[in-house]
Every structure is written in C-alpha cells, then in structure tokens.
C-alpha cells in the first residue's frame, strides 16, 4: 500500500495526475485521493482507473464530474460542500489542473467563499517538455492551445514573436502540422524548436530542429498523442555598427548613459553590456570635449 489515510482540513485540493506513466504520481497526491471526502474529476473514468491502479479504495465516496462544460451550479455545489466542512480533491484527466485544463473558475468560487484552496503539485506536460527540448529554460511563456483557425493562430503567435523567452504550446496531433506551418510563417524558418510527443509513455518522441526542418519532417506523418511544441527565443539580430551608433547618439541626447544603453539594447535585441560600453565611451568623449584626452 503506497498511500495513507490522513486527516484533511475542509477545502479544495488541486491534485496533479500523471500525463502518461501511472507511477508518475506523488505519494501526497495518493494520500489526498485516499482521504478526501469527495472526489471531483475532469474525467471520472480516468480517475477511477488511476485509483484502481494504485489500490486506492473509493468506498462509498462520491465521484463528481467537473469539466470545461460544467456550469456555475456545479461550482456552487462543490463550494458548498467545502463550506460545510468537507474535503474535496479535484483532478484533471492528466497533468496539473488549470494548466490548459479546467479548474480556474472552481478554485476561484471556493476561495471567494473563504474556503481553503491548496495544491498537491506534480506532473505537467509543459514542464516535462521544457526539460527535454534542449532550449533555454530561464524564461518561458506558456501559450496553451493555439486557436484552431490559421488567421487567429498567426495573430496569437505574432503577439509573442519578439518575447525574449522560450515559447511552449500544446496541440492536438490533428493540427500540429498546421501549427508548425504558421510558426514558420510568423517566426521564420530558423527559430530552434522541439516537438515533444507521448511524454512519459512507451513511444515518447522528442524531435529537435529549426522550425522549417521540423515542419518538413512531420509533413507526411500521421501523429498520435498530445503534442507539446517548444520554440526557442529570438536570436540576436544582425545590426550594423553604424546603425547602432547613430541610434545610441540620439538616445544619449535625452537619456543617461545607463538608460540610453538599456533602451537601444531592447530596441535592437543586442546585448545590453555591449551597448553600455559603447555609451560609456561616447559619454567620456563628450565630457572631454574637442581636443580632450
């Protein structure tokens, strides 16, 4: 037996569940699933199967459904149970609730009534993909599922085109080629990227290549399993020294050396240290004046 029956405070417990391999669940998550008064799930069948795999008895406890189509009445009923002193465990079908899964409105409904909302953290496809993509992880932006139609999808991508961070997107296997085509159109063919598919499962696959190569490699394939697309941040743009110098001279007319360097570095996507050193030199030359040392 890998779980313990533990006393739980009344509240809503957000429980992360495996994204593939059933053993990727925390012991605390099993404790909560074994101990909660009421179980709520995005897919009740998936949760019951998970309980059976780990030998967690359901007993007489109710299992309620809560998903994208659940209404305010369902949220109100769950919040009322918490207010009445019961512990409620909520699990998405796979991964962490509220990370492109339902649960936000439910958690807010409980917290607005003064109820406890806490988390048993665990698996997340976005984080798993980031660790495997081989791309920078110091800054990343999670975009969730892109819009299904190309025009709206390109607009959504364009909003993050110059964001200095790695981008993470979810997509169904049916639309992944279309998403990649739009990523190439908006971000260009050379942005480094990775496709992460069937994460933690038997046929896990990680493909790493520039966007155009990745799109071409998948053009004639029929994919299965949810996909995560990870796209690296924009590279340093090639800017001529003359262009950079002229822009820096203009900025220094109205800004301090520090502020001018920061402004130009951001505008041209070049390292701040490089621009700051150029600005310092110009500042010294100006202080020296004509004929100065």
TrEMBL record:
InterPro entries linked: 4pyrrol_Mease, 4pyrrol_Methylase_sf, 4pyrrole_Mease_sub1, 4pyrrole_Mease_sub2, rRNA_ssu_MeTfrase_I, RsmI_HTH
Q: Which UniProt keywords apply?
A: Cytoplasm, Methyltransferase, rRNA processing, S-adenosyl-L-methionine, Transferase
Q: Does the keyword Signal apply?
A: no
List the transmembrane segments. Answer: none
Q: Where is the Tetrapyrrole methylase domain?
A: 12-214
**Would the keyword Metal-binding turn up in this protein's UniProt record?**
no
One Pfam family per UniProt: RsmI_C
**Matching SUPFAM superfamilies, A to Z?**
Tetrapyrrole methylase (SSF53790)
- Protein name stated in the entry: Ribosomal RNA small subunit methyltransferase I
The organism is Meridianimarinicoccus aquatilis
What one GO molecular function would you report for this record?
rRNA (cytosine-2'-O-)-methyltransferase activity
Q: Which domain of life is it from?
A: Bacteria
**Reaction equations catalysed:** cytidine(1402) in 16S rRNA + S-adenosyl-L-methionine = 2'-O-methylcytidine(1402) in 16S rRNA + S-adenosyl-L-homocysteine + H(+)
